[in-house]
Automatic annotation (TrEMBL):
Keywords carried by this UniProt record: Carbohydrate metabolism, Lyase, Metal-binding, Zinc
Name listed for the protein in its UniProt record: 3-oxo-tetronate 4-phosphate decarboxylase
Cofactors: Zn(2+)
Lineage: Bacteria, Pseudomonadati, Pseudomonadota, Alphaproteobacteria, Rhodobacterales
Transmembrane segments: none
């Protein structure tokens, strides 16, 4: 099997797994991944993560020209902004996951540091997460907001909408966005219970040991 065929399969298997575990419902969410030739494979607009077809993914060439497949997600400006501003990006994943969205709606959320420091992996996998304001789905302004971060953040939260994570490959990006949802879930279910989070020292030790983008 060619590397592109393998990547097509991998995108669909990982997306289906997330759909089946309730991480994004209906026909929400979108995903993209770099191919070896510098192009992109992208989930088509209006499709369910549970039923992505490897043969119908939208395919772009290295110049960003749509080559074949179905019409791509309306969130292309958002995905492109990550590839352009973080050249190490090999995949971008966006979900409508319940606890991230719930947390984005609660009072007192720090937009510059969306996820509270509760667990080591929340920090190691995501770095500091920026919450962006609400935008209409597909709005070019979302991409502009990501570009304005100058590549400093791998993960953003779209308020009242859903998380977006860029990482080196599709597997890593999916693991990271799952960690984002798990951390948001912990934050929401312990809301008002005065949970004992990680200390500033714990966070700094994690940042140093695991080379996390943090002081940005
Ligand atoms: O999550 C979505 C929009 O933010 C889904 O849109 P698409 O079906 O166009 O990917
Ligand atoms: Zn969305």
């Amino acid at each position: 099997m060619s590397s592109e065929s393998k990547l097509r399969e991998q995108i669909c298997i990982l997306s289906k797994s997330m759909f089946e575990r309730g991480l994004t419902g209906g026909s929400t969410g979108n995903v993209s991944a770099r191919t070896e030739d510098g192009g992109l494979l992208v989930s088509p607009t209006g499709t369910s993560f549970g039923r992505l077809d490897p043969a119908r993914l939208s395919r772009f060439d290295a110049n960003g020209v749509l080559i074949d497949g179905d019409k791509p997600t309306k969130e292309m400006p958002l995905h492109s902004a990550f590839y352009d501003s973080r050249p190490e990006t090999g995949a971008v994943v966006h979900l409508h996951s319940t606890y991230c969205v719930a947390l984005s709606m609660l009072p007192g959320v720090d937009a510059d540091n969306f996820l509270p420091a509760l667990t080591p992996y929340g920090i190691m996998r995501l770095g500091k997460v920026k919450m962006l304001p609400f935008f209409l789905p597909g709005d070019d302004a979302m991409g502009d907001a990501v570009r304005a971060l100058n590549g400093t953040r791998k993960a953003v939260m779209l308020a009242n909408h859903g998380p977006v994570v860029a990482d080196k490959d599709i597997d890593t990006a999916c693991s990271a966005i799952e960690e984002m949802e798990e951390t948001a879930k912990l934050a929401v279910i312990t809301q008002g219970m005065k949970p004992r989070g990680l200390t500033e020292d714990d966070v700094q030790n994690l940042v140093t040991r695991f080379n996390v983008d943090w002081d940005v």
